[in-house]
Amino acid sequence: SKIPEDERNILIIPGDISNTNKEAMFLLKELKKLFKEIIIVTGNHDLYLHSSSQAHKYKNISWNRVKEMKEFCLQQNIYLLDGEVIKINDISFGGLGMTWDTSYYGFLTRSKPNNSEVLSFFRSYMNDSEYILDGFKPYKVPLAYNGYDIISSWNPLKYFEKEYLKLKEIPKVDVMITHYSPVIPENIPLK
Q1: Which pTM value belongs to this model?
Q2: In angstroms, how far is CA 50 from the centroid of its own chain?
Q3: How far apart are CA 79 and CA 7, in angstroms?
Q4: In 44-114, which residue ranges form alpha helices assigned H by DSSP?
């Protein structure tokens, strides 16, 4: 490896390791050979159930996939943070996967948004969120002109509310790791 030994102490992965746990586990095992400590949080791709075999394996619940990864990480001495704080060499690390709230959309539009606006905004930027499942397979709803919308069992607003509560419980840390960072997309007009 070209990474100097003294630079291999800690690797931080802020989500989106892989679309499958099999690939993620292989990658993490290889990375563990190079880095003493690995800290990860989940991203949207770590929740995806892309195929019918994945959906069947995890019973149409993306969090069953995350649970499997948590168990794997525990066995491999890898930290998968989901609202927890750890300390390595007197440095505190807090972590949480995806959290997002309506205040961000409100900041962008300089308005008090309703949930429908926020969901529409979120889905326009996360147009593959139908792969995140919470109990049943997504289904198509026909629209005009031969179009369709895909309806998923996952409710992003409820999920983000739950994640935001975890985020608020994390005390002040030296390093905070999340999957989403607040950025202003170029094509969103500010009012």
Answers
A1: 0.83
A2: 15
A3: 19
A4: 52-57, 62-75, 102-109
Tokens of 180: 């989403």
Half-sphere exposure of 8 (CA within 13 A, CB side): 11
Query: Is 12 in contact with 28 (CB distance < 8 Å)?
Result: no
19 three-state secondary structure = coil
Residue pLDDT tens, the chain, 191 long: 565 666 668 999 999 999 999 999 999 999 999 999 999 999 999 999 988 899 999 999 999 999 999 999 999 999 999 999 999 999 999 999 887 666 667 777 777 777 777 777 777 777 778 888 898 877 777 777 877 766 778 888 888 888 888 888 899 999 999 987 655 555 555 44
Question: From the CB of residue 50, how many other CB atoms can be counted at a distance below 10 Å?
Answer: 12
Taking the C-alpha atoms of residue 104 and residue 154, their distance in angstroms, rounded to an integer, is 20
